[in-house]
Design a protein that fits this description.
Radius of gyration: 30 Å
Number of helices: 28
Structural class: alpha/beta
Shape: elongated
Number of strands: 11
Helix content: 55-70%
Distance between the termini: 37 Å
Largest sheet: 7 strands, mixed
């Protein structure tokens, strides 16, 4: 959970950045190095190996996207496991995934050596790899946007060169090279699939950057789908070309299979071009992997599972200590260890983690936490997740004993660190305790509030009718000091006209919610809310009481002790029973608006019912226009609304005339002095503001 003293990461990554980082962390060693190693075990069935390897990823990918759009937080897999299966499993997943990513980055930097040695046989690879690691770390410190720009350039160049390779290679495929396709046997093919599985895991690493993605509900799933589709097509077609043009005896064990295939297709020029593509790929995966890995220590530190120093952000809003630690670890691995062998073991641990991720989706859905509000939901639930839990173990078993022991070693390391360092500092549990509550055991209330906080940060969905709810709401401007119970009685009477519930029944529910601590009271406002059957759409009553509305309430932040205070605003929200997450998003929108610095002054200075409503609607979605001569609005005078030709998506919601509020229709004629409240999507409103507020 983000506390007040914890800075948020900047949202700088667009859809293309998401695609480039996801694709860039995938198309490296998996394409330029591993096909030769896979051929040792699978023979000419290498394309099938890559197709099989992607199957266990699909349920994990759907699950990660769902969790990332519900909880866009730095740390990705760690954060999801922690908030669903609890902090111990979260620690295992976070530290283990960070270690696997660091190994993958080191592996990529070493992989560059095989291609560089084609041209400079006597060059020392390790110093070059260390220098590149330090440069990429510096770029990450300067911000994810700069690293994202580098990724876009690298991936664009890489895809162009791979397109040349595949299009040039297909016509030269020798079908005889695919003879004896299945001779190696299914056990060897599955073992090879486990080996190359690491080729795809970069696809999901963008989830660790989800806190920095603009509009994550759209850009995360779309970017990941595009990246996986592109990677799968390139892997299948690319390995078909490699097997089709290079004799299988030569391909087996080749550490530069793409360069070898390029020499058959294009000659020496092809070797140069495709070695250049390999260089782009390895730098790309190292850049994207460094960016993703550095967010894991930040997330663990936020949750008190690592020391606070990892929370330190630079002036550019990047986790500088996390980045430096990640780069330092990569440099140590490059100097002292053999990442080529160790990186192969990372696949088995990732398979295990992705199995946990699929379980996490089942846990959090079945926990029935109302604030769990993913913009994307995995299809075929729960069968997709059950498949995702079981399939990884098929590949892990086929990979042998050593990868399995490596995975258990990382698990033991994570559990040990949690027990020694984290357990005494953490009082949090996961969504699994909410599932236990349904079975009559316990729960962790902090997760509810944290998920609601995330809702507030994510904001409304495009389909949420918040502005319409505000504009049709009842406004009560109380001139004298009053008691909350009197306000509840008046509001309940109005709501009863819109549902089959009696005023008394609604009143009792509002008062009961306040008595048990279900009514948020903060920043001088109260937010009593209900969900009712028989209600067609959400409705609101807005109450302003500048001299104070006295309320007694239970505060959940102080162990539900009874408190009392005077508030100057009360927002009653009643929504249909069928859509609890929209209800919570609307509450979160109100809470977010009242926390803005300008709110209190605007609320106090609002002159009438129309201005009171406008205060609640965000300025980029609302415009007030006064029809007056000698102004841009003069052209509206004496025109019916239907002839105003406002931009598409704009709606005149309220018209104020001579102290009276009118709900306008298309035939309403605009008169001089009328004040129009126009609401709409930000893009449409920006066009309208340029027309009626020159200079904005």
């Amino acid at each position: 959970m983000l506390h007040k003293n914890q800075k948020k990461l900047k949202k700088e990554l667009t859809l293309f950045h998401v695609f480039a980082i996801a694709a860039g962390t995938t198309l490296s060693a998996g394409f330029f190095l591993l096909p030769g190693l896979a051929a040792v075990e699978a023979g000419p069935a290498v394309p099938l190996v890559y197709l099989i390897a992607v199957i266990p990823l699909i349920p994990a990918m759907f699950s990660i996207i769902e969790l990332a759009t519900a909880m866009p937080r730095a740390g990705g897999v760690y954060y999801f496991l922690d908030r669903t299966l609890g902090p111990m499993i979260g620690t295992v997943g976070g530290l283990g995934t960070w270690a696997a990513l660091v190994l993958k980055v080191s592996f990529a930097l070493i992989g560059m050596g095989a291609y560089i040695k084609l041209f400079f046989p006597y060059i020392q690879i390790i110093p070059i790899a260390v220098i590149i690691a330090v440069v990429l770390g510096a770029l990450s410190i300067f911000g994810s946007k700069k690293s994202g720009r580098l990724q876009v350039i690298l991936v664009t160049l890489l895809l162009l060169l791979l397109l040349v390779f595949i299009s040039g290679g297909v016509p030269k495929i020798n079908e005889l090279n695919f003879n004896n396709f299945f001779d190696s046997g299914w056990s060897s093919i599955l073992s090879a699939a486990g080996l190359v599985y690491i080729s795809y895991i970069g696809i999901t690493k963008i989830a660790s950057l989800s806190e920095e993605v603009k509009n994550p509900g759209r850009n995360l799933p779309l970017g990941i789908f595009l990246a996986l589709g592109s990677a799968l097509i390139i892997y299948i077609l690319g390995t078909i070309v490699m097997v089709g043009v290079v004799p299988i005896s030569e391909l087996k064990g080749d550490l530069t299979p793409v360069a070898t295939a390029a020499s058959y297709i294009f000659g020496d020029t092809g070797v140069v071009l495709l070695s250049l593509a390999a260089l782009f790929a390895f730098i790309s995966v190292a850049n994207g992997g460094t960016l993703a890995a550095s967010r894991y220590p930040l997330a663990l530190s936020r949750d008190h599972l690592l020391p606070k120093l990892f929370q330190k952000l630079s002036s550019r809003g990047t986790p500088v200590i996390s980045i430096v630690t990640t780069i330092a670890t990569i440099v140590i691995i490059l100097i002292f260890l053999d990442p080529l062998g160790i990186a192969k073991l990372a696949s088995s641990f990732q398979l295990l983690v992705f199995s946990f991720i699929c379980l996490a989706v089942i846990i959090i859905r079945e926990s029935k936490i109302e604030a769990y509000d993913p913009a994307f939901k995995s299809p075929l639930y729960p069968w997709m997740q059950i498949l995702g839990i079981l399939l990884p173990f098929v590949l892990i078993v086929e990979m042998g004993l050593i990868p399995l022991l490596f995975s258990f070693g990382l698990i033991a390391l994570g559990i040990t660190w949690y027990l020694i360092y984290g357990k005494s500092r953490v009082v949090r549990t996961g969504a699994i305790y909410h599932l236990f509550e349904r079975l009559g055991r316990s729960r962790y209330g902090g997760l509810d509030s944290e998920m609601r906080g995330i809702l507030k940060e994510k904001g409304l969905r495009e389909s949420d009718p918040f502005d319409e709810i505000v504009t049709r709401s009842l406004v009560m401007d109380i001139k004298e000091k009053d008691d909350f119970s009197n306000i509840v009685k008046k509001a309940s009477g109005w709501f009863s006209q819109l549902t089959d519930k009696s005023p008394l029944e609604i009143e009792k529910r509002f008062l009961e919610g306040t008595r048990i601590g279900a009514t948020p009271v903060t920043h001088g406002i109260a937010l009593p809310h209900l969900r009712l059957t028989g209600l067609k759409q959400a409705e609101m009553v807005i109450v302003r009481g500048l001299k104070g509305i006295h309320i007694k309430f239970k505060n959940p932040l102080t162990d539900f002790e009874e408190e009392e205070q005077d508030v100057h605003a009360v927002y009653f929200l009643v929504s249909p029973e069928k859509d609890p997450t929209q209800h919570l998003r609307i509450l979160a929108q109100i809470a977010g608006r009242v926390e803005e610095e300008t709110f209190e002054m605007e609320w106090r200075d609002a002159k009438d019912e129309q201005e009171i409503k406008e205060v609640l609607i965000h300025e980029d979605r609302c415009l007030s226009i006064v029809a007056a001569h000698n102004s841009p609005s003069s052209k509206l005078i004496n025109k019916p609304l239907r002839d105003t030709h406002f931009p598409e998506g704009c709606l005149v919601a309220i018209l104020r005339r001579q102290g009276q509020t009118i709900v306008p229709s298309g035939t309403t004629v605009i008169l001089e002095g009328d004040r129009l409240t126009v609401i709409g999507e930000p893009k449409s409103m920006a066009i309208l503001k340029k027309e009626f507020e020159p200079g904005t």
